[in-house]
Amino acid sequence: MKLKTIKISYLFIALLSVNFLSCTDLEEQVVDERLGSESSSPENAIAAAYGQLGDGTFVDHGNVFCLQEYSTDEAILPTRGSDWGDGGKWRALSEFTWDASNPQIKSAWDALNFGITKSLTAIQAIEKSEVANKQLFLAEAKGLLAFYTYNTLELYGQAPYRDPMDVNAEIVVRKADVAIDELITEVEGLLPNLANVGEQSTHMGRFTKQAAYALLAEMYMNRAVLKNRYSNSFNFNETAVNGAGTDMDKVIEYTSLLIDSGRYKLETNFFRNFDISNDNGTELIFAVVQKATSNSLRNSSNSFAYMPLERAQKPSPDNRGTNATATTPEFYHSWDGNHEDPRFHRHYQYGDGTWFMNDGTDVSMPATSLVEGTGKPWFHFNRGIQAGLQYGPTILASGAFEMVNGRIKVNPLKMEKNTNLAVDFTPEYNFDNPLQAVLSQNQINRGARVFKYEFDPSFGNNGNGSVNISLFRLGGIYTLRAEAYFRKGNTSAALADVNILRTTRTREALFNNAPGVALTSLDEATLVKEIAFETYWELVRRKQLIRFGKFEEARTAKAVTAPTRRIYPIPQATIDASNVFTQNDGY
């Protein structure tokens, strides 16, 4: 991939500069392919807008992920002994003790606002140009603007806008309750000028018609929440923006356009969607395309795989985990009675047929799987939810894996920061103070871990990788349609969609490729669980819990909270730097 120097701007000091369309030099990476000629300013500008998707925004655990997941039952980052204290900024998201000065709330706000700015800059550059495919690129840039704006409104309730074609235009603050209808209308208006995926050199990393359908389904599903954030009873069946049917009818319409298109197919191996090789997958509709190369790791993140791995777990002699992020007992136990679900866990099989059982019976693994770029042995940990004692390779003083008969020796693992403590991922935390996510040095192994995304050990960099990060994929689209059917009272149709997901996924050959088991009935509590079984750790759980009225409930390290916590505060630095934004209620 080619790196390009482009000009972009920032609105406020830490947000976007006051000179909204003035210049600052940054390097941006074109998403997977060149969009036009080498010197094209519109190309550079739209490349920057796409690049922001993967410049930490949706691929690093410390931005949108932490706001959407650490505030839920699916993920938690506790302080572990001397690690991950960081002024309490991480555990505050699980404890619901965050305020307007929380660095991660500011980080995600800045990242999303950079996306808004870069999209507006791209719109300006394209409008002023005579570039080939002008209408296509303009529609894509406007689609990206809608995507960044929607995500900002959903998290913060407010988002900035300024007419990119008028240098004297005032900055406007869009408010979620009004802007959600405007965004839906804007994206629906883009559809005629967007390409179908695969046409006009488009792919999963471009904002296509199919990406627009997915975004529209998502916006219609959450429209009732954005219009009345603190309600005790959302009106999900309000008349749609264009007057044709209801919100849930539109969710069903747009999801069905994707499901019935023949362009996508559910993967039988669920974890294929989160593999390094998911370039050739069949489910990704819109994704952050990542390509880690020896020349550039700038826009490639392995954060979702790196964070839950214990430091003693070594995918290669050059790599390790960081013993941070885990799931909660509530989410772990939601799988009770369903551990045979192909989405819960999957064993890895090496090329010679050896399975990694991770149960104390393993003696060694082949050394024939090699890390690209180094040629060193690659140890593959299992995927899905990991609990209990953990096993794997250990590193000799020479820096190489301990070997036995030319194979990687498998040993019981000890915590790197406390070698008297086994790597035993116990689902329960039993925090000394139940409302503080703090573990002593003797407790740092607690918490079941999520190994959903494949760890990429290429080039010996723990924090980078080539897994394309899904923003919309077919499995998630099925869950949206199932929820819409359920909210319309069509429980049989909702159950059918849930069972398509359950029975299409299959276990590994170790279990004769057995499919998941269909449900015979569906109620709201079951639907909430089934949606999470399909979409866990995909930056959507907070929205789901809010829709189902479960976000405020007490859970691990968290007491019952007020509805005002359904929205994050505008960062204090932004409030201090401008008089445009007003602080959200409760902060």
UniProtKB/TrEMBL annotation:
Pfam families documented for this protein: SusD_RagB
Gene3D superfamilies with a match to the protein in the record: 1.25.40.390
Ranges where the RagB/SusD domain occurs: 282-587
Domain of life: Bacteria
One GO cellular component term: cell outer membrane
Subcellular location(s) of the protein: Cell outer membrane
Keywords, ordered alphabetically: Cell outer membrane, Membrane, Signal
Biased composition range(s): Polar residues: 319-328
First and last residue of the signal peptide: 1-23
Ranges where the record places region Disordered: 311-333
Family under the similarity heading: Belongs to the SusD family.
Protein name: Starch-binding associating with outer membrane
Organism encoding this protein: Chishuiella changwenlii
